[in-house]
From TrEMBL:
Keywords: 4Fe-4S, DNA damage, DNA repair, Hydrolase, Iron, Iron-sulfur, Metal-binding. Gene3D superfamilies: Uracil-DNA glycosylase-like domain (3.40.470.10). One of its GO terms (biological process) is DNA repair. The lineage of its organism: Bacteria, Pseudomonadati, Pseudomonadota, Alphaproteobacteria, Rhodobacterales. This is Type-4 uracil-DNA glycosylase. It comes from the Bacteria. Residues 106-252 form the Uracil-DNA glycosylase-like domain. It is an enzyme of class 3 (hydrolase). Its EC number is 3.2.2.27. One of its GO terms (molecular function) is uracil DNA N-glycosylase activity. It catalyses: Hydrolyzes single-stranded DNA or mismatched double-stranded DNA and polynucleotides, releasing free uracil. Belongs to the uracil-DNA glycosylase (UDG) superfamily. Type 4 (UDGa) family. InterPro entries: UDG_Type-4/5, Ura-DNA_glyco_family4, Uracil-DNA_glycosylase-like, Uracil-DNA_glycosylase-like_sf.
Amino acid sequence: METGIDAGMDWFAARAALDWQLELGADEAIGEAPVDRFAIEAGAQAARSALVAAPAPGRMAPAPEADPVQDAEAAARGAATLDQLRDAMAAFDHCDLKRGARNLVFCDGVPGARVMIVGEAPGRDEDRQGKPFVGRAGQLLDRMLGAIGLSRAESVYITNVLPWRPPQNRDPKPTEIAMMLPFLRRHIALADPDLLVIVGNISCNALLGRTGITRLRGQWTEAEGRPAIPMFHPAYLLRQPRMKRETWADLLSLSAKLKALP
Ligand code: URA
């Protein structure tokens, strides 16, 4: 049977295609190449015999259910550098988003810069290039930063709450944010910026535990032990250009804070 599932499909599209076939009544998977099930069964039998012959494991307790947040905390704690943190995130297997993503989107800009921007999650362009904020919203972000003399080439470090693209750009789930938050916290600690720019509601929720960006924006607060300013997400500004005026005020406030901080 022609499955319609091709090798270039992402995980979520393949899963949707499979569900669709089940709904149509498919109850057996038949591949195009013949499979010698006798040979497979002989191999399985040998493996079972080896297991039976193995020494009794004693009173082995069943493996405890893994807790994704605890695992993330341990993995993040173990990272002593940004490179190690990237590796730890790449090895983290609890988040389903990873299976549908092309790339881990870790950071862009200058590690150690005074300004660290925290966005929400990669979109299609970011997923393809493996870098945050490279699509239309990212280009607007670059122009916003340029207006106060900042740039990712020289003076800004950028990351996201989530390193993998959610399918169809849906909002991240609370469980996904909770399990990736220990990595974000460690990311901020290792990058050690003077201040944080938190863009969008999802990032505010993750780092401040608050939403309502229209009220929060432009109000200096503290996150991860350093000054932080929430701002409108550039994707929102693309849809609502009228709000650029407020963002200009926030950018001036950011510029003044940088001058005022030691
Ligand atoms: N939106 C984000 O929040 N982050 C990106 O990297 C791209 C778009």
